[in-house]
């Protein structure tokens, strides 16, 4: 027998779990339980929602849609924009290119996700987290359809959850083909068109069954922002967006590189209704603003605008009366508070809906000198400060005057009136080209601005709307004139959704600076390059001409009205006789004469009363002789002696009740001897 083991082995004691381990296990357990409850709750919500969804046949019924009546300031109806619905197309009738384009740009994983896209949601979360704000969304086509059919556009978390639930329910009730069919027949594509058939007929003049790849890409690109990308608002932006869609289709494998290359969106031509007048340039611009003022998408709207019918008629008459072959033009009129009272965006809206008054970016030429001289005035110069027109060379570049001569010593006002290039560049060099750019930014120029020396002569592209509003700020005594068009928005039931309140005054420059600038612009019209714009009443303005006469500008104002005119070719080719002091100035004069008929003339605000802090002599304020850097201030030559073509008229022409109609012969005769800027 074996003796008992005196030291029997004991089983090791069971280690107790740490508090953290128990907490983690509990957390996982509770998390799993909550996740299960959430899944059950989601399943129940989806089931209930699915049972309450209308039938497919009910969803196919086109709604009445929303109409928008746009009125002039006096209540006159300008246009009624209502929704249009084309023929309902079955999935089999919809071109494959249209379906694939929409999938590629809006929902690449449409064919396999259950209604929401987890991958897209994670990607959007990471992108937005890095950006610090919402840069990217993750809504699927089904979610967009759910929102358009059943929900509002409120940007709330609850609405987003409801949208996802409805999307999941729709995916359970309807097939993928049915959802795509519903989406392409019901989504809004801009220009009042709902559904691809209405959009195709609106933009191309044929049914959607005939869409090719390039046309399909344009339509697919509109969903992101219909009012911004619609061809009725901006054809070039629509084409640019379509190129992104085609590139996305290649990236997703929907089409090959060869197909993408063959789909040339630049060759796509748009059509418009033949009975639409040129006021549609204005009303299209109004519609782009309306979207930012209200999210009402069902009840009919009544929109009152700032447009003055008499001003609009005058602008259209001035635009139509002259026909320089191959040219287009833009005209904008506004009050000094920024209220746009007339707009012409081209010669014929029915032939070209591209708005050259709002969208086109062109070089402003010497009309840009407004900013050069504003900097000089703000820095302490005055209209009678001495400057010198002389050769200038900066880093190998030398500006030259349009007449090829240098006129020597003159005053700042004379340099502006004669549009002397060398002086403008000297001002930019002295006070800083960055300062000129900053001044332009202050006055509402948002397009890219070069700070190279040539910028002082208007080498950076701008829009007519921006430049006209900048001049309106001078007309308003240095107070910002931010362009606006919508006065009020009401529903058909009489509920006011928006009523414009006057902006809080934002002072851009001191009043005496604006008054000095007005004094110099008045000299440009009375004795300088803008003499052709005279209308027999106090007027200030500035011409602008780019190299080789590719662009001609005239922007000016009376105390009652500000107007800007641009003329040129869309292909930026040279146009004979297009100097700003010629045809554009004459168009300006024809417009203003008609627009202001019956309005009593009032004096310009160009009588300067300096505040105490600015009333001391320049020499005391800056420690140097006035104008010493530019030349003697005592030399104030007569413009007629410097250049005989610039002798002031003996008297401005009288205002006629029925102004002379602009014709080709009249323009050529009247402008053949006008000074070129």
From TrEMBL:
Domain Glycosyl transferase family: 83-249
Xref: InterPro entries: Beta-lactam/transpept-like, Glyco_trans_51, Glycosyltr_51/Transpeptidase, Lysozyme-like_dom_sf, PBP_transglycosylase, PCN-bd_Tpept
UniProt GO cellular component terms: outer membrane-bounded periplasmic space
Keyword terms: Carboxypeptidase, Cell shape, Cell wall biogenesis/degradation, Glycosyltransferase, Hydrolase, Multifunctional enzyme, Peptidoglycan synthesis, Protease, Transferase
Swiss-Prot/TrEMBL catalytic activity: Preferential cleavage: (Ac)2-L-Lys-D-Ala-|-D-Ala. Also transpeptidation of peptidyl-alanyl moieties that are N-acyl substituents of D-alanine; [GlcNAc-(1->4)-Mur2Ac(oyl-L-Ala-gamma-D-Glu-L-Lys-D-Ala-D-Ala)](n)-di-trans,octa-cis-undecaprenyl diphosphate + beta-D-GlcNAc-(1->4)-Mur2Ac(oyl-L-Ala-gamma-D-Glu-L-Lys-D-Ala-D-Ala)-di-trans,octa-cis-undecaprenyl diphosphate = [GlcNAc-(1->4)-Mur2Ac(oyl-L-Ala-gamma-D-Glu-L-Lys-D-Ala-D-Ala)](n+1)-di-trans,octa-cis-undecaprenyl diphosphate + di-trans,octa-cis-undecaprenyl diphosphate + H(+)
Entry keyword annotation includes Protease: yes
Domain Penicillin-binding protein transpeptidase stretches: 336-592
Pathway membership, UniProt: Cell wall biogenesis; peptidoglycan biosynthesis
GO biological process per UniProt: cell wall organization; peptidoglycan biosynthetic process; proteolysis; regulation of cell shape
SUPFAM superfamilies found in the cross-reference section: beta-lactamase/transpeptidase-like, Lysozyme-like
A molecular function GO annotation: serine-type D-Ala-D-Ala carboxypeptidase activity
Membrane-traversing stretches: none
Stretches for region Disordered: 620-677
Family (UniProt): In the C-terminal section; belongs to the transpeptidase family.
Protein name according to UniProt: PBP1A family penicillin-binding protein
Lineage: Bacteria, Pseudomonadati, Pseudomonadota, Alphaproteobacteria, Sphingomonadales
């Amino acid at each position: 027998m074996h003796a008992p083991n005196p030291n029997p082995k004991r089983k090791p004691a069971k280690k107790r779990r740490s508090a953290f381990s128990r907490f983690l296990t509990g957390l996982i357990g509770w998390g799993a339980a909550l996740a299960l409850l959430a899944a059950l709750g989601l399943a129940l919500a989806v089931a209930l929602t699915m049972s309450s969804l209308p039938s497919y046949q009910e969803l196919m019924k086109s709604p009445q849609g929303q109409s928008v009546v746009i009125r002039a300031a006096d209540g006159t109806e300008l246009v009624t924009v209502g929704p249009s619905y084309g023929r309902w197309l079955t999935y089999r009738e919809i071109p494959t290119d249209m379906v694939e384009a929409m999938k590629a740009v809006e929902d690449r994983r449409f064919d396999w996700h259950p209604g929401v896209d987890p991958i897209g949601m994670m990607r959007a979360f990471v992108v937005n987290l890095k950006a610090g704000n919402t840069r990217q969304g993750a809504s699927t086509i089904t979610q967009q359809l759910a929102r358009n059919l059943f929900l509002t556009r409120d940007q709330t978390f609850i609405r987003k959850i409801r949208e996802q639930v409805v999307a999941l329910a729709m995916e359970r009730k309807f097939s993928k083909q049915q959802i795509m069919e519903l989406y392409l027949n019901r989504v809004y594509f801009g220009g009042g068109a709902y559904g691809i058939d209405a959009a195709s007929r609106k933009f191309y003049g044929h049914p959607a069954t005939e869409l090719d790849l390039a046309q399909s890409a344009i339509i697919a690109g509109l969903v992101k922002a219909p009012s911004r990308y619609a061809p009725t608002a901006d054809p070039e932006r629509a084409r640019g967006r379509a190129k992104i869609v085609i590139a996305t289709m290649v990236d997703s494998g929907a089409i090959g590189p060869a197909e993408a290359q063959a789909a040339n969106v630049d060759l796509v031509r748009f059509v418009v209704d033949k009975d639409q007048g040129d006021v549609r340039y204005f009303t299209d611009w109004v519609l782009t603003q309306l979207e930012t003022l209200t999210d009402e998408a069902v009840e009919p709207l009544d929109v009152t605008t700032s447009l003055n019918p008499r001003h609009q008629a005058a602008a259209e008459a001035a635009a139509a009366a002259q026909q320089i072959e191959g040219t287009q033009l833009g005209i904008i009129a506004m009050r000094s508070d920024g209220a746009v009272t007339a707009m012409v965006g081209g010669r014929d809206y029915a032939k070209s809906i591209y708005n050259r008054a709002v969208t086109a970016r062109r070089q402003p030429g010497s009309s840009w000198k407004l900013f050069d001289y504003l900097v000089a005035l703000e820095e302490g110069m005055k209209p009678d400060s001495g400057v010198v027109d002389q050769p200038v060379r900066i880093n190998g570049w030398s500006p030259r005057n349009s007449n090829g001569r240098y006129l020597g010593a003159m005053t700042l006002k004379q340099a502006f009136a004669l549009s002397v290039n060398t002086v403008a560049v000297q001002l930019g060099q002295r006070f800083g080209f960055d300062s000129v750019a900053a001044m332009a930014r202050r006055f509402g120029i948002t397009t890219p601005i070069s700070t190279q020396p040539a910028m002082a002569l208007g080498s950076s592209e701008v829009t007519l709307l921006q430049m006209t509003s900048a001049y309106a700020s001078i007309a308003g005594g240095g107070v910002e004139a931010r362009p606006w068009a919508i006065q009020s928005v009401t529903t058909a039931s009489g509920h006011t959704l928006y009523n414009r309140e006057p902006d809080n005054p934002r002072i851009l420059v001191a009043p005496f600076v604006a008054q000095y600038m007005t004094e110099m612009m008045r000299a440009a019209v009375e004795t300088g390059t803008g003499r052709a714009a005279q209308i027999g009443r106090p007027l200030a303005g500035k011409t602008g001409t780019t190299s080789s006469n590719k662009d001609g500008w005239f922007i000016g104002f009376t105390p009652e009205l500000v107007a800007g005119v641009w003329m040129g070719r869309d292909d930026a080719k040279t146009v004979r006789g297009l100097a700003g002091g010629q045809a554009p100035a004459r168009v300006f004069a024809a417009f203003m004469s008609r627009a202001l008929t019956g309005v009593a003339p009032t004096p310009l605000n160009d009588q300067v009363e300096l505040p105490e802090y600015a009333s001391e002599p320049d020499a005391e304020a800056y420690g140097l002789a006035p104008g010493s850097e530019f030349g003697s201030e005592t030399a104030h030559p007569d413009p007629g002696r410097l250049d005989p073509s610039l002798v002031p008229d003996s008297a401005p022409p009288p205002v006629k009740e029925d102004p002379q109609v602009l014709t080709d012969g009249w323009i050529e005769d009247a402008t053949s001897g006008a000074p070129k800027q």
